[in-house]
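Work Package 3 (structural annotation) set out to generate three-dimensional models for the target panel prioritized at the project kickoff. During this period the team completed the workflow that converts sequence records into discrete structure tokens, so that structures can be stored uniformly alongside our sequence database. As a representative example, we reproduce one entry of 332 residues exactly as it appears in the project archive.
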Amino acid sequence: MTRPQLGPWLRDEMGSYDGLVAAAVDRLGRNVVDCLNTGCKMRDEGKLLLTRGHDGPWNLDDPADENSFTIEAWGAQMELRSIQRRNRDATVKARTAGRPKHQPSYGFRNVRKVMNGRVDSVELHPHAAVVIRNVAQRILADPMNVTPSSEAARLNRIGELAPADHTDAMYGKPARGRRWYPTSLKNILLSEAVLGYLMHRGKPVIDQEGNPVRLCEGLWDRMTHDALNVVGGWFEAVDAVVGAVMPPPLRTRVRGRPAAGGGRAGLAVQAPKAPSAARSWSRAGSRWSRRRRVRPGRLRRRCTAARPATGRGAARRPRDDGPTAGTTGCWR
């Protein structure tokens, strides 16, 4: 249902159709659940399901066809697991040999001697390297006024491609208009990948001699990297202090009755109650009412002072600790 090409058809977003035709059952999904969901959807909606190598449409109401379909789907799932295992083994082998097998960090690009072949080397990107170096220089020159937030806003204003769009553009894909964010910019600046190291799970890969594996020259040297980490730690300390000193934003609640014209009349902004308050006083129209917080299932009682003293329950008096002290009313 979530596949980019087949999903809209399965969600009935592309109009009516008579059925699905696939080269094999494993093209309908990459696991047993996905294949069975697609097959059962075609069966329940009365649509055709055809695959190569099967005589006629699949009839999942027939036990023989259902068993054959499930076996082929199970084979597709086992094939997927084998592909994933081979990819993991190839990645570990390339990392052990000191060769990159992943998308480059912002500011770098992979070099392939054969199109769509393996990565032969890594080099600095001529444009992205200049952009990120300029950001680092501006922050180090004036850390009091230039922050990752201000730089992210500046990059968005000048229309600089975000890291994800930059990667798509390098591989010939259209940009999606993503934005720069302070967190992602800060991660790029503080990561050791900018030093040209081969990275794995956020840390440099260490060779047999105990040294980090270097793929190419870095965007800046170790001294600049340490200075950026000091500034980044200072930014975090300032954010922590501001968060501890500044009170949380006051949330208000707007109350009122619908007006005749469709709007809201009699609006009043009420501040949130203190967590420890067992009761509060509020004004509804011209009457003061006392509201209590009670357990679920119990009724609320309200004292109204607007009732005449000669009415029902006139002998009962409300409590003397609120705006209605000294008046006559009743509980209801």
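The CA atoms of residues 95 and 161 lie 29 Å apart.
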